[in-house]
Amino acid sequence: MPFIPHTEQDVEQMLAEIGADSIEALFDEIPEALRISGLDHVPSGESEMAISRRMRELAARDGTPRCFAGGGAYEHHIPAAVWEITTRGEFYSAYTPYQAEASQGTLQVIYEYQTMMANLTGMDVSNASLYDGASAMAEAVLMAVRGNRKSKSSRILVPRSLNPAYRRVLDTLVSPQQIRIEEIDYAADSGCVEPETLTAYDGEDITAVIIPQPNYFGRIEDVDALTDAAHALDATVIAVINPLAAAILEPPGTWGEQGADIVCGDGQPLGVPMSSGGPYFGILCCRQALVRQMPGRLVGRTVDVDGKPGFTLTLQAREQHIRRAKATSNICTNQGLLVTAATIYMSLLGPHGLERVAGVSHSQTSKLRQKMAGIGSVELIHDGPIFHEFAVKLPRPAGQIIDRMAERNCVAGIDLSGDYPELGNAMLVCATETKTDDDLDRYVSDLRDVLS
């Protein structure tokens, strides 16, 4: 835990310097009615040793279950060096850069991250400073509405095979702005959107089409055909990706004849622990033509008056950060710590390492899928290629099965019945490179026992 170096004498000197009688006097503007005298259930001060022991005990209560749940947050191995470096004081305490003269180290890390992300997605530009994949997708939609000058309708086609959490966040953020979200269904047998679905909108004003790759069911969409069909409608194509899958799948910048226009997703698979749901960080990339519509931070490389290389915030007005009415977005906080972790993670693994992690994740998931298909009462719901998760139908409600598996120290998957009732007792199952063959066998054995 951090060491707090201020002695009572230090505190008294600082208070005297600013002319305050006590620390309490610094908060005199807070009305008395809003103050509390103490915190219930919070013990009085303890020694560092006692507090450390208490925190270890609380952490142990979470246990270390085997995790086979995905759906947007994934358990990957994170090399020790990633967070050993990320939590150094230079990175750990650095706040968001508001000015071009911000720390060169902070700016360089963001620049390196943006370069890697642009290469990974095949796009021209990447930014930093988005909260998570869902809010990044909402920002992508707002970019599309501003940037698609051919469209006046603000109609966005969103597949139901997109992560349900993303769809809910999207509706929350853009529906008050008179942007129409229209869901398009997936084919029951494949779990994917048929490109012919978009032809039904021929002649209509469609602002943007969202294409997930892979989709929420882990299925691989026909992104080339979908991208071309969307562009035939003069719609902006927004790709929602898993960045790790992008290491082995076709990059969005090359989809179809023209490629995707905007790419977004969650950076959690790139060196960020699951952490019970966050914090994560959002990915947002685009073509050069849309760069002026992009929110968040953009760092450029330049030279100073002496010809030495340097880094600076670029292509943004100051109003982006302090004047809401003039800003392209109200995203004004930097997820720089997570971006730093992702940059170190990608640097350590390199392109071949990312490809190996993605390949092993796919291989282990394929093995698990085959093993589960051998359980007579378990049915694979969709046919065709997957990345590292898939949906199965169970003979009893998925929630019950997940609870029973939890008793065996296993997070078995995600219950799909709430968001996809048409699938019946369905569960989404995921495996990554962290799962050994023994883990897969044990999972299947436990599941057989629970089902019987």
Keywords:
35% helix, alpha/beta, single chain, 452 residues, four-stranded antiparallel beta sheet
How would you characterize the overall build of this protein?
The protein has 452 residues and is an alpha/beta fold. 35% of the residues lie in helices and 14% in strands. The chain contains 13 helices and 15 strands. Strands 2-8-7-6-5-3-4 form a 7-stranded mixed sheet. Helix 9 links the parallel strand 5 and strand 6 (236-241). Helix 3 packs antiparallel against helix 11, helix 6 crosses helix 7 and helix 11 (336-373) packs across helix 13 (437-451). The longest helix is centred in the C-terminal third of the chain and has 38 residues, at 336-373. The chain starts with 7 loop residues before the first helix and ends with a helix. The mean pLDDT is 92.
Report how far apart the termini are.
47 Å
Calculate Rg over CA atoms.
25 Å
Helical residue percent?
25-40%
Strand content: 5-15%
* Class based on secondary structure composition and strand pairing: alpha/beta
Instruction: Outline the biggest β-sheet.
Output: 7 strands, mixed
Mean pLDDT value? 92
Given the C-alpha coordinates, what overall shape results?
A: globular
Major sheet: order of its strands?
2-8-7-6-5-3-4
Give the ordered list of helices and strands. HHEHHHEHEHEHEHEEEEEHHEEHEEEH
If helices are DSSP runs of H or I spanning 4 or more residues, what is the number of helices? 13
Number of strands: 15
List the helices and strands and how they pair.
Layout: H1 8-18, H2 48-60, E1 66-67, H3 80-86, H4 89-92, H5 104-121, E2 125-126, H6 133-147, E3 155-159, H7 164-174, E4 180-184, H8 196-199, E5 208-213, H9 223-232, E6 236-241, E7 262-266, E8 282-286, E9 299-303, E10 309-313, H10 319-322, H11 336-373, E11 379-380, E12 389-393, H12 398-406, E13 410-411, E14 414-415, E15 426-430, H13 437-451
Parallel strand pairs: 1-13, 3-4, 3-5, 5-6, 6-7
Antiparallel strand pairs: 2-8, 7-8, 9-10, 11-12, 12-15, 14-15
Helix pairs in contact: 3-11, 5-11, 6-7, 11-13
